[in-house]
Amino acid sequence: MVSAVERKIEQYIDELDDKFVSTLYRKLPHGKRLRTKLILKIAGSDLKVIKTAATVEMIHAASLLHDDVIDDANTRRGKVSINASEGNKTAIMMGDILYSKAFFELTSISTEIAKVISNAVVQLSLGELADVELSKRFHTNRDAYLKMLYQKTASLMEASAEAGAILVGKNREAYRKYGRNLGLAFQMIDDILDITADSKTLGKPALHDFVEGKVTLPYIYLYEKLDINDRQKLISLHKKRLTPQNEKWIKEKMAEHKIIDEAYSEAKELVVEAIELMESLGERDLSSIAKAMIEREF
Ligand code: FPP
Ligand code: MG
What we know:
Layout: H1 2-15, H2 19-27, H3 34-43, H4 47-70, E1 75-76, E2 79-80, H5 82-86, H6 88-106, H7 111-134, H8 142-167, H9 172-196, H10 199-202, H11 208-212, H12 217-225, H13 228-237, H14 244-256, H15 259-280, H16 284-295
Antiparallel strand pairs: 1-2
Helix pairs in contact: 1-4, 3-4, 3-8, 4-6, 4-7, 4-8, 7-8, 8-9, 9-15, 12-15, 15-16
The protein binds farnesyl diphosphate (FPP) and magnesium ion.
């Protein structure tokens, strides 16, 4: 029923009665609709469920439009990003329009759902701000990084799962935890793939995070393992365009110290916890979604 959510978003966009906005919306790549899949699997396909998923996807899309401006990105999911093709001003306003319309629609679902989702957007914004701050210089603050990861990515997945549970009277705490673990693992795996996957699969250059200034968990773990000279070298490469030799050096050091295995096991632990939780509740489809996450390649 993901298509019912797509149609609901299209209806919301049509209601804005603005041809340019409709054209811009059609240019946005849809992505995996992971949050929709969670909500539908938890809560079925009642109108309120479809509306909740539609608002969450619109908020997610808005956050990515703003994120691409902040990151000065040229592509999104392998396609030219809106900020790159239309300019920053248009990308920001399109984000604001999607976000505001989503909130307008949320208020007619229920106060409880609106509270859960809007609180996640506060977290999302705090997380993005923390990401910007953390990316300014090299750091090794794992706790600050994990907090930012939770806020920036896990909070909306957590809220999606919780909202789904509220809509059908399931145990909101259990589903909230499931969403949180999945969100954290999702971003941790994203960070790993930025190092291991080839640029064609990712739709962005390899080691892009580090070049952008993002010191993700594998880099923090690598730093801890390196000797003093190599630590200096790693710091000197932060936020720089990497030569093929330096790219190779980082990847070799990651392999030598088994950093990817370490980071992957951490993500896997969270996923296993999510799987066990869902199996204990008889939610086989939801445990399958979690399983697929640790096997994904992009
Ligand atoms: C992607 O991070 C960014 C997010 C998941 C959240 C961005 C949140 C905001 C801009 C604040 C909220 C704003 C609104 C309007 C709701 P990334 O840059 O690490 O990932 P990427 O590789 O996909 O760009
Ligand atoms: Mg970004």
